[in-house]
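Box 3.1 A note on notation
Throughout this textbook, protein chains are presented in two layers. The first layer is the amino acid sequence; the second is a token string describing backbone geometry. Keep the layers aligned when reading.
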Amino acid sequence: MVQITEVQLNNRKISNRDPAIIIAGMNVIESEELCISVARELKNICERNNVDFIFKASYDKANRSSIDSFRGPGIDQGLKILKKVKDEFNVPIISDIHEPSQAETAAEVLDVIQIPAFLSRQTDLIKAACETKKVINVKKAQFLSPAQMMNIIEKCNHFGNENILLCERGTIFGYDNLIVDFLGIDEIKKIAPTILDITHSLQLPGGKGKSADGRSYQAKVLGTAAAAIGLAGFFIEVHPSPENALCDGASATRLSEFESLLLELKKFDELSKSL
């Protein structure tokens, strides 16, 4: 059985035993100006609180409920914007790829390649991501059990990449609902460094008919409960005005409330890893 205990990212060790990293940013790039403004604020907050930070924003949200859903600027313009963020703030960048053909181009800018949950069993996509030799963050599909994530780790090992993070983002629980199984997360931790996607675990998929609803008001409850069991990191999407966000605003943390959430996560993380 393949087990990954730690991942190296820019001389930073990521593991379930080390201080948690924060993956934070926007669900989707809405504009260059907003993306840079949010990145600046997140960088300042994380630096002020001595927390390692990876900036996240999607250049394309391909997995949308409706044909009318906003998808973002696309790979070419999106990567240009993410490179500006990377160069200006000297932070690692993570974003999703949706097709094998995107991997090599995205790897020119991204430090971490993210595999969307719905695509986490796509062998060709995993192969293309692995061949970049970048760190890969694999979202656990909403329909997979924790034990089934071992198959993905074995694929990555087969394709020569063990710099793998596994990301919990909730499991389908009936129609239009997700649950987070903490016993399941404990099993995922035995396989690889584990991230909790707080934001998407709070989704109510399809809850608005043509888009997701969400429970952003429960971010602190979910995050601190997970921090208590000791994880490698947390994934948090923010927006200055979630009610006006072009995608998944109902699950996003208001940017002005991010630091408060971060401090709570840090306290519980430090406590759990000191015991």
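The longest helix spans residues 32-48. The mean pLDDT is 94.
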